[in-house]
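Hi support team,

I submitted a single chain yesterday and got back a structure, but I'm not sure I'm reading the token output correctly. Could someone confirm the output below corresponds to the sequence I sent? I've pasted both exactly as they appear in my results page.

Thanks,
R.
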Amino acid sequence: MSDLSLRPLAEALGTSARLLIYHFKSKEGLLAEVLDSMQTRLRMSLGGMIERRAGQSERPLKLFWDWAIARENYPYLKLLYELQILAVQNPAAYGQYLQRNASNWSALIATALPEAERTPAMVTLLGAVFDGLFLELMSTGDRKRTTQAILQFIRLVDDAREARPAIRGKAAKTSNTGRG
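Hi R., thanks for writing in. Yes, this is the structure output for that exact sequence:
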């Protein structure tokens, strides 16, 4: 982000680069504010969608994927990921933003999960799967394959969820019959 010039942005906004620096303290401060604003809008949009769809059978991860790859949302999310990648390259300037962003997204993911599954590991796994597949989509443009991958991951999670009570029941029977 070091090669980003504030002059064209200032001109487009009808102000001066000096005034932008005065208000935001630095180019990094301005970019962090823009990133925060974009993240907040995206989280609010996703949170609203999750609330509207509460009680429906479709998985929140699939809802978010469909929302993210929709023609009207994809360019904004793609830009956000591109900026996020640039921010990762300068943790001294953007470290606080990156930590705050990770925490905010994790909290939103957790709210979409059943209470029994709201573990840090599950939240991290869901976020990482989404991020990885979205980066794959950005790289290849292959919506069909990446959507199939999201659906496959959801099936794996659902299968594990269904198997969990049977595994627990087996473990309980084994521990009860092993010693007497």
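A quick pointer for reading it: The chain has a mean pLDDT of 81. Let us know if anything else looks off.

Best,
Support desk
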